Amino acid sequence: MGAVLPIAFAAAYAGRAARIGVQIAETKASQSTRLDALRAGLLDAGYKEGQNITIELRSADGRYERLPLLAAELARANVDTIIAFGVKALVAAKDVTDSIPIVIPATSSDIVAMGLIQSLALPGGNITGSTSFGSEVLVERLEILKDVLPRLTRAGIHANPANASLAPALKKIAVASASLRVSFQVFPVPSPEHIDRVSDAIVKGRAEAIVVQDDTMFAASAKAIAQLANKHRIAVIGDKELAGAGTLIGCGRDEIDRYRRSAQFIGKILRTAKPDDLPIEQAMRFALVLNNATARAIGITFPNALTMRADAVIQ
User: Fold this and answer.
1) Which residues is 129 bridged to in the sheet?
2) Of 195, 200, 133, 110, which is closest to residue 158 (Cα–Cα)?
3) Beta strands in 121-239, from DSSP E residues, in sequence order
4) What is the dihedral of CA 179, 180, 182, 188, to 10 degrees?
5) Which SS3 state, helix, strand or coil, does residue 26 take?
6) 80-107, pLDDT tens digit by residue?
7) pLDDT > 90: what percent of the chain?
8) What's the chain's average pLDDT?
9) Which of 72, 71, 101 is nearest to 266 (CA)?
10) End-to-end CA distance of the chain
11) Cα 273–275–278 angle (5° rounding)?
12) 2 has pLDDT over 60
């Protein structure tokens, strides 16, 4: 039959159903849209749960200290590959195994700077998947805020201290903030339960706007972040999900599409491709979403040039 068996028959040809592990740092409910996208991509590729594929799902429920234990469980379960939902899950999986292939569907973390891979073109280990612009996304968000608020002098950064990509990202945003003449303060948010008190700290610190780090926790807490920001009339920019939940601006990649596309990496691995032979895909542009309803509520007018750039405007 040659070397190009249809994906649908790859696992059966190997004599057993494929087994993939999925590791989630947050709750299953908060990541349900991503899970649905992953399952849809697998179905598109010819994989159906209960027939030719089994999914071993592990969720830390926001208790990040559990991630290494969950990754070890997946390794002991003899899965064919591990799908890491976010960089926290990726780091835990990488610490546990250097032999089981690991796929990260989407991350904005600079996984080269973090030492997780050698390069995007030649990962050189057991990790493959998709990334965007690394820490550049935070710089882009700060620049957009400065366009919207020309008098901006103090910005805050919502950051998850458990996210190992924070340090390299802060180095780049420090350079950008100096050029823009905007000081910034990092506001650590170790769990969703801390969002309320961190918002109080932001108000006391007189931050005029907030840049939100890309992290699965913040995506899962989008509504809470938006409600508190709008209550205090603070301009917030994060990923597209945050703008949809009610923050002022969203800037980022289409994560849901990338979770669906991750099935392509899984299929290649199940057909015996090696992760270090699969270049990391890189998103080539950011999508920009403006929330006009929020802008009106907090007394901000978007510049015409920015409105013209927007991929979507929420009225």
Assistant:
1) 104
2) 195
3) 127-131, 154-159, 183-188, 209-212, 235-238
4) -80
5) coil
6) 999 999 999 999 999 999 999 999 998 8
7) 72
8) 90
9) 101
10) 55
11) 80
12) no
Residue with tokens 């366009």: 147
And the tokens for 286?
A: 């950011």
Do residues 279 and 129 lie in contact, with contact meaning Cβ atoms separated by under 8 Å? no
Alpha-carbon distances, residue 259 vs 33, 36, 168, 280, 307 (angstroms): 9, 9, 24, 14, 28
Q: What is the DSSP letter of 214?
A: P
Q: List the one residue out of 241, 234, 192 whose CA is nearest residue 214.
A: 241
**Which pLDDT score is estimated for 35?**
96
Phi, psi of 18 (to 5 degrees): -70, 150
Give the start-to-end residue ranges of the domains of the chain: 7-132+254-282, 136-252+286-314
Q: Predicted confidence band at 7 (pLDDT cuts at 50, 70, 90)?
A: very low
Q: Which of 254, 312, 2 is nearest to 132 (CA)?
A: 254
pLDDT, residue 266, reads: 96
CATH of the structural domain 136-252+286-314, one choice from 3.30.70.1450, 3.40.50.2300, 3.40.50.1820, 3.40.50.300: 3.40.50.2300
- The helix or strand, by DSSP H or E, that contains position 73, with its residue range, turns out to be helix 67-76
What's the farthest any 2 CA atoms get from each other in the chain?
68
pLDDT of residue 13: 41
Taking each helix axis from N to C end, the angle separating 87-96 and 67-76, rounded to the nearest 10 degrees, works out to: 50
CATH of 7-132+254-282, one of 3.20.20.150, 3.10.450.710, 1.10.10.10, 3.40.50.2300: 3.40.50.2300
DSSP 176-207: HHHHHT-EEEEEE--SGGGHHHHHHHHHHTT-
Q: CATH topology of 7-132+254-282 equal to that of 136-252+286-314?
A: yes
